[in-house]
Amino acid sequence: MVRKTAKSLAGLSALVLVLAACGRGDDQAGGQSAADISQGPATGTITVWAMGAEGEKLPALAKEFEDANSGVDVQVTAIPWDAAHNKFTSAITAGQAPDAAMVGSTWMGEFAGMNALDPTPSSIDKGAFFDGAQRTTEVDGTSYGIPWYVETRLIYYRKDLAKTAGYETPPKDWAGLKDMAKAMQTKAGAKFGIGLQAGGTGSWQSLLPFAWSNGAQLTKDNGGAYNFDSPEMKETLEYYGSYFSEGIADKEAPAQPTTEPDFVSGRVPMFISGPWMMSAVEKLGGEGFKDKYDVMPMPTKKTSSSFVGGSNFVVFKETKNRDSAWKFVKWLTEAKTQVKWYQQSTDLPSVKSAWQDPALTADTKLAPFGKQLDTAQSPPTFATWEQAITALDTEVEKVARSGADPAGALKAAQSSADSIGTGK
């Protein structure tokens, strides 16, 4: 499942692709130094764009910033996710971008390539964030903005059915996960042992945690090219595909899976997703269901890693109120602000120290997500990522649904990525 705040950006228009490749001027994104911001309270008007539920909830949080800075007016505009990307690129091209905005982490390379983003001031402590999240702000060695909130994925599993299958504790490695998934079918009555996406849009978010756990690197040539057909990726896709070829996962799984009812009924007693699914399965499962399931880290091959997503917050270069815009963004990184935002939105804090707050430590199922964030990784911030990954999604589907050769599938994905390039 892909959360609405991490939507895929596939299907960009040709005009957008040209703009992303060509940029808005002769300046290069890499190696830019950032001027710091002044001391004192924020003043003047700050225009802010934010998407989806975050756009609807942010005005209440911004009011607290206004209360602490009596001379500032934060004007938040909520934008639907499906309209956001084109609205941003049109505004950037027309020189009418807001002062600051919530930006999808996979948009960073494109917008930096358009010379639209202001580098992060040195007074913002980049070490305060989870490493994987911080890297989503970096393009060619320069950080633009902050990781505002994060998400990562773990494996949800029916603890009661695992016990029936002979497992008192969850497995820790690839072989153990596959064995437990099989036992869920043969001993606990599950139709399928685990729910995995059988290719299609966004399936890379299911595949890559396994790849990263196998030590796969998505770039080569010192970060100058895509690297989809490495030995580590081949081994990963072979492993992932085996779940489908052996009938452990459903090769006919619909594009819109029925995850919650399948999990609650026990038809599919394991799936991979983020913390937002806890409330969904507990609501459907009813009283007592909370005790029937748990979450476990991604299984280890060489390490244990997962996908880090979420959204960043940036300041645009053409802002007329740079200091106040950055003061607002910096305020969003304060641990107490991050905790308050979690309580209002359930978006997970990107600042590591916020995870020590009782508001988060009280939930024992939430803590493993924080631990996984220590090793979670993000895709490269290439301007062409969303185009290049579409080919990988297509090839994963061929492997999952039709049993295509993983090596040949990755070779095709690599060829497509090479022809697209990185956008630099």
Automatic annotation (TrEMBL):
Signal peptide annotation: 1-20
Renumbered residue ranges of the record's region Disordered: 405-424
SUPFAM superfamilies: Periplasmic binding protein-like II (SSF53850)
GO MF annotations, alphabetized: maltose binding
Highest taxon listed in the record's lineage: Bacteria
GO biological process: maltodextrin transmembrane transport; maltose transport
PROSITE patterns: PROKAR_LIPOPROTEIN (PS51257)
Keywords assigned: Signal, Transport
GO CC terms in record: ATP-binding cassette (ABC) transporter complex, substrate-binding subunit-containing
Ranges of compositional bias, category Polar residues: 413-424
CDD domains: PBP2_MalE
Family: Belongs to the bacterial solute-binding protein 1 family.
Protein name: ABC transporter substrate-binding protein
Species whose genome carries this gene: Lentzea guizhouensis
Organismal lineage: Bacteria, Bacillati, Actinomycetota, Actinomycetes, Pseudonocardiales
